[in-house]
Every structure is written in C-alpha cells, then in structure tokens.
Model the fold of this input.
Amino acid sequence: MVFRTDKAIIGMIHVPALPGAPRCSMDIDEISRFVLTDAAALAEGGVDGLMIENFGDVPFFSTRVPAHTIAFLSRLAFEIKMRVPLPLGINVLRNDGMAAIAVATAVSAEFVRVNVYTGARLADQGILQGEAHEIARYRRALGAATQIWADVAVKHSAALGDRSLGDEVEDTVERGVADAVIVTGSSTGKATALEDVHTVKCHARRATVYVGSGVDESTVESLLEVADGAIVGTAFKRGAEVSAPVDPARVRSLVSIVRRKFTGGRQSTP
Done:
C-alpha cells in the first residue's frame, strides 16, 4: 500500500527545463531550489504523495532521454526524498519508462508513471509505442518494489485505431501487469470526463485508478467518488498557471475538500 488513505492526492512537481534542454534558463542548483520549494509547499498543503517529471524539457524525446537528463532527475528526486517524507513518483517525459524505473530504484521512489505503456499512440513526438514487456522485466531485474502507473488514452495524443477505452484498460492491467491506471483529459490541465473515469474503474479490476488532469476544487469530489485518487498540478499553482510556483493555500483548500468528503476531516500521515 503506497498511501495511508483511500483517496490519495498526489502533487505534481513540474521541473523547469534541465541543462541541455532548449529552454533551460537555470543551472541545476537553481532548479533544485525551485523543485524543493514546490515539494515543501505541496507537503505543507497536505498532499499524500509527490510526483516529479521533466516538464520543461520540450520538445520531448519520443523514447530514450539523454544520460544527463537521468542524472539530473536522479539528483532532484534524491533531494526530495531526503527532505520530504512522502511517497514519490517518477515520470520521464515523454515516454522513457526504463529511465523512470532506473531513477525510482536508485532513490527508492514508490512508483513511476508511463504515458504509453501498452499499445501505441500518435503524439507530437510521432508514434509512441508501449514497452511494457521491457519495463516490467527491467523492474524485476533490478529487484525494485516500484509500482508501475500506466496512462490509458493519454493526454496530448490520439489513437491510431478504433479501440474501446475499456479494452485498453483491461490489456494494460492484465497483459501489461500495471499496478495502477491513470485517466486524463485531452491535455495538461484539461478536465477528465467523468464518464471515462467510470469506464476505467469498471475495467481496471485489481488496479487502482487515478485521475491525471483537470482536477480542481469544482471537480475533485465527483471524480473521487469513482477514482481512487488524483494527480494534481495546474490547480495547485499560483493563479492556476502551470509554470508558476505551487501556492500552499490552493493546496490546503483542495485537500481540505477531499478530507471532509472522504475521510471525515482526518489528515493522512506519512
């Protein structure tokens, strides 16, 4: 069990562009301070866990990221782990699940997110192909206890063929052996359709289900009536601007809604 609550809120840490990325404007020490400030603000606001991703590294690689990206993310993840006693997830954009497993194993992170884990999707990087067969075996080879959280019909992408969401979920869980499934809207910050959440939950079987975009104070109650938790990024930022720092007051406000509705006001403990 990753979280001590049935309705977990995971705060997303959007890492600024890392050295080597076209939009990089800070050195790694400055990036570290930004990331640790966001991590502290999310923890202060009461989230149940954190996730880190190289959000600023646009345009993203379609598969393997450079070695230096893995090294910088490992440093940042380790620093978070040393300072914030919350479960941590790793997402290496756009779709390097192998790197995510490596970073997570090195820093003892609890889970990874893989955007296209099974099947294939069309995105701005071209065709993204799932590597569940490689990622699951790599986890086993490293002896890692890290959970694999897999997106289905992931945002910023389109299907390559006519296939039902329910079938995709079932294959992701049963044939891809994912531990959790993430359902999103069409892009970062865009609302996730409640109908899709119902479909994913219905077909996920033993896997937990998380909503991965568009969760805010107006939607969190209805979404968590169905889903097991939510990954929240944009709604926690100052002015709900994705590139802004985390605002602890916005975190507390949303988390308090979840606590009152689903846990009788009780705060989960790390």
